[in-house]
Amino acid sequence: MPSLLLLAGDGIGPEIMSATKRVIDYLNTKGAGFETTEGLVGGAAFDAVGTPYPQDTVDKAEAADAVLFACVGGPKWDEIKEYEMRPEAGLLGLRKHFELFANIRPAISYPALADASSLKREVVEGLDIVILRELTGGVYFGEPKTITDIGNGQKRAIDTQVYDTYEIERIAKAAFELARARRGKVTSMEKRNVMKSGLLWREVVEQTHKQGYEDVTLDHMLADAGAMQLVRDPKQFDVVVTDNLFGDMLSDIAAQLTGSLGMLPSASLGAVDPKTGRRRALYEPVHGSAPDIAGKGIANPIAMIASLGMALKYSFGMNKEADALDAAIAGALDEGARTADIAAGGPTVDTVGMTDAILKQLDLRL
Ligand code: IPM
Ligand code: MN
Description:
- Helix content is 40%, strand content 22%.
- It folds into two domains: 1-109 and 259-366, Isopropylmalate Dehydrogenase (3-Layer(aba) Sandwich), CATH 3.40.718.10; 118-241 and 252-257, Isopropylmalate Dehydrogenase.
- The protein contains twelve helices and twelve strands.
- The structure holds 3-isopropylmalic acid and manganese (II) ion.
- Manganese (II) ion binds next to helix 9.
């Protein structure tokens, strides 16, 4: 039986996870056979068991075929200074533990929503790009990572940007393989004009390209110029491959192109496990825990539900169901279902209402 670990986390997490559970239940009525377990992570885990990253959750993730993760963090835990105790440590811990180095963040503009973007319709209409973010290296995890007292009332903060060849090579390969299944174009972004890691990044991406990926077109851009191009003319891109920090920022930009951060799912994939033949995988929305609307039942569940869609595709090979789910989301939007974040002042549905609309559309397709 395919198994999923559900980690609802904080803020709107439990609401969008309940919505997603309804979709899993529906798929099970069609014979998908998913077994689900639940675990604690983030601030919710800190409150319940004193750590945002409980061993029990790691054990459950080890046992599951894939993890569905909602979001973590919020003002309630802002005062926690100790890094390992912050809600985000739960997410970062899982990414690192399972070496989920390839973070696929698609930005797709749903036709019904082209006017919800802050950019002109013609700039975003039909947009279909992927930000491929390196997820287990760079400044997120580099050591030293410290704040020290240096006397005279001064402190010094250090973060370290580190990349080894193998880390760049494996994400570059992932980018070329992804592009092959799409429009065959990769744009690599770094800051080689100021960073050594940018120099090595470009060199290794170039070398990897020559190792049998010449059929894919490869371009390079400095990450700042790339950010500008993403807003100026996003449709010029197919797959953008970049490091952990730039990927964090560029994927938020890409998300906003589509009209709402609430729309974007992501897949974080590790290497194939030789024992099971499966990739380690965690699926999560790109958006955060939205504490300002948490508990109100109005959050947009689309990014979380679409993350399940990515799990169907990448972890379980259920392409028919994944396509039907994507089409159901587009269908619900075509029908006019809008949560507040994408309503542009028009009539809205709540989280449950959006989920109802998606399930209704899904039922027409499966
Ligand atoms: C993301 C988030 C995380 C990140 C936070 C919650 C640690 O912003 O997944 O994009 O910075 O990677
Ligand atoms: Mn982010």
